[in-house]
Design a protein that fits this description.
The structure is a homotrimer of 179-residue chains. The first copy, chain A, is an alpha/beta fold and 179 residues long. Chain A has a single domain, classed as P-loop containing nucleotide triphosphate hydrolases (Rossmann fold, 3-Layer(aba) Sandwich). In chain A, 41% of the residues lie in helices and 25% in strands. The two termini of chain A are 25 Å apart. Chains A and B meet through α6 of A and α6 and β7 of B.
Chain lengths: 179, 179, 179
């Protein structure tokens, strides 16, 4: 997985940040500046009560202009099936990657499908992802592997996005702007 | 705990950063640009030798213009009791939050008291806090919960501060400046 | 170890970032803008298969203009022995520090030797290092200690470098520029 391949996609924005950095809220704000309807593609799977609560909180915050699509694995298909003129929010790449790795799916093929789906769109597409590589090396090999794959995927999407935002404490830092 | 509520406080600065990023040193420099006396509100509790040493190192670095107040839990009271015209340094929100959570205190109430104490001040108030959300999701639930609460608190204070600085390797990045 | 001592070194650049943030690739790009030959000082030790693979991937990416020197501990000597007019890339301080700590070496003395070696050079010298302090406090004392020492070393090198770059998702943020 190289950080080249696609042309820079002028409709694509990556919102990157840590846990509780305000990524989703900021990304929703970008999308809802455009006229409704908006498509929210959720990659979360409600494995447990903690996750169910997080999903409910996010869902309650969104108003009626949103259509929500659940796509824990079939993210590329969900992007292709969204109306071509509707702004799309993908929340988030981190849970999608986690679902792929836990299910032992082919990451290179999944990333290729994601690239193709993103490249076909014309309307605003905002992708949320976590930065996870700024702590101490994790003890266990799966966490190290996840951290590596997340970093590679973030680099890849960042290379193809026209706009990249890094969130710190709810504040956006623009780290790429080719719009 | 929403990121709204207070007006932006023109006297409030948040200095955010990772471990050993130079947060305290930079925050001290901001305060000591103003005339003494200065108030240092310390939230650290010396639970063990490691912590005692860290506190001593920080204390030794500060000169005679400082009055030190220990407030591991009663941070809002300490802020209210500081002389109204003296610059105040709060070091740091992360240990305060940790003390609150370990003692099973009401975080919403404590944050409300903090907001009120900060809003009453007029003179420079510099608050130091840790960014802790940029690593891999922690294994244990308490650490995950702490990470979430710290992120929410940082967003909340950042929304209310006129100035927010993100420290990396001892270097300040200004991520909000409404002074 | 204070963040003072050396004059700012106009030939010194620090490239800082998380895991898989594109540090090495960006640093290589800085060096190869200058005419070959270039010197690559590698501090990695191939303890296991995972590490051997990472080293091989990095090595394969570099072309014939590079001379590679392995210096898991003797980094200051390797810097002194590099041709004075050849650009040098040190990749990376994090593994060097880790090797020093695992071998129970004197960090203050090692840092002093590093300072002296860096100060003697005139040609471009790019040093790669990891930011590791932006996650939750690690459980074990060695990891906490490593995190502290890495933060101190990064501050120290950043104070002496004319240029400091913070990488996020393959994108460079300039956080110091005194070139």
């Amino acid at each position: 997985m190289e950080t080249v391949g696609l042309e820079t996609l002028s409709h694509l924005t990556l919102v990157l940040g840590g846990a509780r950095s305000g990524k989703s809220r900021f990304a929703e704000g970008l999308v809802t500046e455009r006229p409704a309807p908006w498509v929210y593609i959720a990659t979360a799977e409600a494995w447990d009560e903690e996750m169910r609560e997080r999903i409910a909180v996010h869902r309650d915050r969104r108003d009626g202009g949103w259509t929500t699509v659940d796509a824990p694995l079939a993210l590329p298909d969900a992007i292709r099936e969204a109306p071509g003129d509707a702004p799309v929010l993908v929340d988030c790449l981190t849970l999608w990657l986690s679902n792929l790795m836990l299910g032992d799916h082919d990451l290179a093929a999944a990333t290729q499908h994601l690239d193709e789906a993103l490249a076909r769109r014309k309307a605003m597409t905002v992708v949320v992802s976590n930065e996870v590589g700024l702590g101490i090396v994790p003890d266990n090999a799966l966490a190290r592997s996840f951290r590596d794959e997340q970093g590679r995927l973030n680099q890849h999407i960042a290379a193809n996005a026209a706009s990249v935002i890094f969130m710190v404490a709810g504040l956006p830092m623009t780290i790429k702007d080719e719009t």
